[in-house]
Amino acid sequence: MAQFSAAPGSPAIPTYADGGAPSDSPIPAGYSERLYNEDLAPLRHQTWGAYNIFAFWMSDVHSVGGYVFAGSLFALGLTSWQVLIALLVGIAIVNVLCNLIAKPSQANGVPYPVACRATFGVLGANIPAVIRGLIAVAWYGIQTYLASSALVIVVLKFVPQLLPYADVHHHGFMGLSTLGWAGFMLLWVLQALVFWHGMETIKKFIDYAGPAVYVVMFILAGYMVYRAGWRNIGINLGGVKYHGMEVVPVMITATSLVVSYFSGPMLNFGDFSRYGKSFRSVQRGNFWGLPVNFLAFSLVTVITTAATLPVFGQLITDPVETVGRIDYPTAVILGALTFTIATIGINIVANFVSPAFDFSNVAPRLISWRAGGMLAAVASIFITPWNLFNNPAVIHYTLDVLGSFIGPLYGVLIVDYFLVKRQRVVLDDLYSVSPAGSYWYTNGVNYRAVAALLPAALIAVICVMVPALDGMANFSWFIGAGLGAVFYRVLAR
Question: Which InterPro entries would you find in this protein's record (predicted)?
Answer without folding.
Answer: Pur-cyt_permease (IPR001248), Uracil/uridine/allantoin_perm (IPR045225)
